[in-house]
Structures are given as structure tokens and as C-alpha cells.
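Appendix B. Extra example for self-study. Work through it before the problem class; the solution is given directly after the inputs so you can check yourself.
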Amino acid sequence: SAVISQKPSRDICQRGTSLTIQCQVDSQVTMMFWYRQQPGQSLTLIATANQGSEATYESGFVIDKFPISRPNLTFSTLTVSNMSPEDSSIYLCSVSAGPRAVPEAFFGQGTRLTVV
Amino acid sequence: AQTVTQSQPEMSVQEAETVTLSCTYDTSESDYYLFWYKQPPSRQMILVIRQEAYKQQNATENRFSVNFQKAAKSFSLKISDSQLGDAAMYFCAYVGGGADGLTFGKGTHLIIQP
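Solution. C-alpha cells for the complete assembly:
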């Protein structure tokens, strides 16, 4: 299993500013994932954070808006840049752990972001 | 691209009764995994049960079991002896055999009536 600490748990931000969300894992993991959950919606994958290389973004998400860092195998950050009210969502960090034959995704508790 | 469909936005069940949540998916892969996650109001995603596509036997975890129909691409969750603590959003999710993130369905809001 993996224990994930995500900070901050919530924040209220002014439009036009940026927020960096931190994700710390208690063990080394290869793949870290960032998801967005808009109000009342399901989770959508933003990007996969790879250690030592650039993140891989899903369709509809770009690096300029959601820059990601992955400096080591236990830590990653997601920045939400130049925020607008449409960015108000829950952002979740996730990792895969366990033998590759049985992937299991573990999640942080999420960051609830409100943009005003 | 893979898709996951949950056709029941909301389900309601009496405490101690049994409820089944539906999920269908579409994929061209032969190696994949399916999951059911629970998200209570605390918003923490909790793994309920998982199924490996190569296994014919349906997964079971205490009161939770699945009906995995690979040919029909169906993956329903049965909750027996429903408890008040089961009330939450339930998400069906898919991941392929590669190093991918999860694809989620839209979720089913489960209400437990006392």
C-alpha cells in the first residue's frame, strides 16, 4: 500500500493567481498521476508525472496551465496557473503501487480549490 | 480510447438490503483491470474491490462482490447487507495493462435508507 499526503487540503484563491499543490508519498513509486474532479463530476486524468522526464498530459490539458514537477520518486507538485473560476475543483494526486501484475491506485485526500 | 459508463446517477436501498450498481466499459485491450471506488463526503477515494480481466472468478471482499462479464464488458458491484456507512459516491474505473492512469465512470450516488 501507499500513504499519500497532499497539501493544501483546501484553498480560496483570487483569479489570475497560481496555486501549487504538493503530493508526498511514503514510498518510492514510478508513476504519479494528477486528477481533476469538477463539482458534482467524476475524476478526469490531467497528467502522468514521470521522474526524470516531462509529464505526459491528457487531451485538453496543457503544460502552461498545469505545470508539473517530479523531482524524485516520492514527491510531485501540480501548479494551477492564471486561475479562473472554472478552475474551481478538487485536485487529487494518485500513485500505483504493488506488483505490476496487480496495479492498485492510491489517492491523496484531495485539494479543494475555489477561485473567486 | 477506453470509456466507462455508469448509467445510474443515483440508487437508494433500505438498510440491510442488497443493491447492485451497474458499470459497462469499452476497450480493445485484452489485459486490463477494473475497480470500484467509494468516495464519501470526506472526498477520500477508497478502493472497494478490483478485478483482473484474465481472472474468470468474480472478486469478493466481505459484503462486496462483482459480476464480471468479460464478453459483455460489464462489471457490476453488489453490496449485500447494506449499512449506513456505505452511503457515498461509487465510481467504476478501468486501467489498461500499460502504465496508465485510471478512466472513471460518472459515478453513482448511493443512498442508504434507515
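Self-check: The mean pLDDT of chain B is 94. If your reasoning did not lead you there, revisit section 3.
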